[in-house]
TrEMBL record:
PANTHER family: CYTOGLOBIN, GLOBIN FAMILY PROFILE DOMAIN-CONTAINING PROTEIN. Belongs to the globin family. This is superoxide dismutase. InterPro entries: Globin, Globin-like_sf, Globin/Proto, Globin_lamprey/hagfish. It catalyses: H2O2 + AH2 = A + 2 H2O; 2 superoxide + 2 H(+) = H2O2 + O2; Fe(III)-heme b-[protein] + nitric oxide + H2O = Fe(II)-heme b-[protein] + nitrite + 2 H(+); Fe(II)-heme b-[protein] + nitric oxide + O2 = Fe(III)-heme b-[protein] + nitrate. GO terms for molecular function: heme binding; iron ion binding; oxygen binding; oxygen carrier activity; superoxide dismutase activity. The gene is Cygb1. Keywords: Heme, Iron, Metal-binding, Oxygen transport, Transport.
Length: 154
C-alpha cells in the first residue's frame, strides 16, 4: 500500500485551508454538488432523486442534495484529520472507494471533478494560497481512489 508524505508544515496549512471551507460544510458542500450537476449534467444520472431537478435553485433547496453535500464534506474532513497517518487515512478512503466502485458504480473521473470544484471554491472564497495548500490533499484522495478502483477491476 502506498504511503503519503506530507510534511508537518503541509499538514498544518492543508488543515488550515480546509477549516475555512468546512465551517459552512452544508452550504459549501451543496454549492460544490450543484456546480458539479450543472457543469457536468451526466453526473446527475447517478443520483436518481436529483435527476428531475434542472435548476440550480431547485437543487440548492433539496434536502437530498444538501445531505449529500454535507456527507462528502464530512468524509473529507475525516481524511484531513489523518494526513499524518496513512493507515488511518486509507482506513477512511478505502471502504468509501470500494462502495463507489462496486455498489454505486460511480465513474472515478467524478472524484477529480468534485475535487477540482472544491479547489475552485476555496480560491474564490479565500484566495490562491488557500487553494494551493489543499491541492496536494485532493491529489492524494484522487490517486488513492484510482488505485482502489483498479483493485476492484475498473
Amino acid at each position: 500500500p502506498s504511503t503519503m508524505s506530507f510534511s508537518e508544515a503541509e499538514v498544518q496549512s492543508a488543515r488550515g485551508a480546509w477549516e475555512k471551507i468546512y465551517v459552512d460544510a452544508e452550504d459549501n458542500g451543496t454549492t460544490v454538488l450543484v456546480r458539479m450537476f450543472t457543469e457536468h449534467p451526466d453526473t446527475k444520472s447517478y443520483f436518481t432523486h436529483f435527476k428531475g431537478m434542472d435548476s440550480a435553485e431547485e437543487m440548492k433547496q433539496s434536502d437530498q442534495v444538501r445531505g449529500h453535500g454535507k456527507k462528502v464534506f464530512s468524509a473529507i474532513n475525516d481524511m484531513v484529520q489523518h494526513l499524518d497517518n496513512s493507515e488511518a487515512f486509507l482506513g477512511i478512503l478505502t471502504p468509501l472507494g470500494k462502495k463507489h466502485a462496486t455498489q454505486l458504480k460511480i465513474d472515478p473521473k467524478n472524484f477529480r471533478i468534485i475535487c477540482d470544484i472544491i479547489l475552485q471554491l476555496m480560491e474564490e472564497k479565500f484566495g490562491g494560497d488557500c487553494k494551493a495548500s489543499f491541492e496536494k490533499v485532493t491529489n492524494e484522495i484522487c490517486t488513492h481512489l484510482n488505485n482502489i478502483y483498479k483493485e476492484e477491476g475498473w
